[in-house]
């Protein structure tokens, strides 16, 4: 059975994965960088791992509580807490270089120039196979998130593209009027692939205490509750872009992943479902293999975008 996929066909080096199951940014291991995985965890069974979004300087993150479980998902407002790019390159990347799986670093800045600086800083670092540009963070100069304005998302993509030799994946936010417009702009600016989608803005309130579930009041909804939103985004964007799409949002089983492939995704990421339960990645992969076997499908490419309408 052939599960291999090239997520950057228009990049000279490509970005080849042995299978299409990836981790999602911020959810891999206890710290988002793969800490505390069980001894002997088979990293080589993953297609790729995406590390937590890293910013130019360390960030404390938002007030507690940062994560709340809901009946069909999670709310989080981590606030991009991370140790900063220098610490990540010095302390974490050397280990990744020895891992039997491609590592993708998620980056975010508060200004367009900061994205470019991050990409420049990463250049030449062993152990990083690609960048995932997280445009779902506020632009301090303009207020809105970078990914909420097509021209700004495109500018970030272009500036990163200018200074990196790595494949550039851009991860889009669903909190926009028309995600298709942003996807088009980012593709035209040089993105090698798109990750769809980041969390959906949401909130929850405890009516007894009258307090919000999340310290920051507003958070990002993830998990099964958001899967239909993510699938619709993948489906709509896949119709208009040529670059590969990585689907993410509410994937818990192989069947969930199959839905994303049928909608047009070439790979999937598993986020909240794997928080504290890394076996979920392996179960999703096993479920995909099982589904392909039962349908007599030999190559994943036969399923991508094969939705019957
Ligand atoms: C605890 C937590 C932390 C996250 N941190 C990041 C992050 O650093 N960067 C990012 O692009 N997305 C981040 N996300 C969003 C996920 O990568 C993913 O896009 C989203 O949760 C939807 O997938 P899921 O339903 O499988 O969780 C985070 C999500 C959670 C739940």
Can you characterise this structure?
With 309 residues, the chain is an alpha/beta fold. The protein has a single domain, classed as Aldolase class I (TIM Barrel, Alpha-Beta Barrel), CATH 3.20.20. 28% of the residues lie in helices and 19% in strands. It is built from seven helices and 16 strands. It has helices at 85-96, 112-122, 150-163, 179-188, 227-238, 254-263, 279-294; strands at residues 5-6, 16-17, 21-23, 49-54, 67-70, 73-76, 103-107, 130-134, 168-172, 193-196, 200-202, 205-206, 211-212, 219-222, 245-248, 267-270. The strands form four sheets. It has an eight-stranded parallel β-sheet. A hairpin with a 2-residue loop joins strand 5 and strand 6 (73-76). Helix 5 (227-238) packs parallel to helix 6 (254-263). The longest helix is centred in the C-terminal third of the chain and has 16 residues, at 279-294. Bound molecules: flavin mononucleotide (FMN). Flavin mononucleotide (FMN) binds next to strand 4 and strand 6. Flavin mononucleotide binds at residues 24-27, 32, 52-53, 67, 74, 76, 78, 80, 106, 134, 171, 198-199, 222-223, 226, 248-251, 270-273.
């Amino acid at each position: 059975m052939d599960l291999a996929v090239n997520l950057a066909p228009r990049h000279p080096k490509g970005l080849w994965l042995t299978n299409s199951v990836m981790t999602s940014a911020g959810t891999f291991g206890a710290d988002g960088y793969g800490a505390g995985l069980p001894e002997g965890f088979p990293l080589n069974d993953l297609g790729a791992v995406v590390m937590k979004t890293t910013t130019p300087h360390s960030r404390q993150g938002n007030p507690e509580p940062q994560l709340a479980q809901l009946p069909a998902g999670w709310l989080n407002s981590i606030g991009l807490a991370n140790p900063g790019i220098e610490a990540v390159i010095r302390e974490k990347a050397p280990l990744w270089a020895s891992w039997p799986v491609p590592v993708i670093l998620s980056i975010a800045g508060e200004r367009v120039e900061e994205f470019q600086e991050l990409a420049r800083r990463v250049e030449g670092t062993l152990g990083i196979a690609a960048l995932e540009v997280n445009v779902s963070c506020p632009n301090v100069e303009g207020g809105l998130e970078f990914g909420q304005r097509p021209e700004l998302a495109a500018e970030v993509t272009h500036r990163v593209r200018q200074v990196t030799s790595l494949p550039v994946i851009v991860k889009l936010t669903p909190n926009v009027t028309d995600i298709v417009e942003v996807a088009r702009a980012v593709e035209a600016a040089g993105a090698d692939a798109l990750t769809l989608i980041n969390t959906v803005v949401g909130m929850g309130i405890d009516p007894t205490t009258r307090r919000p579930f999340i310290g920051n009041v507003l958070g990002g909804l993830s998990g099964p509750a958001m899967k239909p939103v993510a699938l619709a985004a993948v489906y709509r964007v896949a119709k208009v872009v040529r670059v590969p799409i990585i689907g993410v949002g509410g994937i818990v089983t192989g069947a969930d992943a199959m839905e994303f492939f049928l909608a047009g995704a070439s790979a999937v990421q598993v986020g909240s479902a794997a928080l504290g339960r890394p076996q979920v990645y392996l179960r999703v992969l096993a479920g995909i293999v099982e589904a392909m076997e039962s349908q007599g499908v030999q190559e994943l490419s036969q399923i991508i975008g094969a939705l019957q309408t």
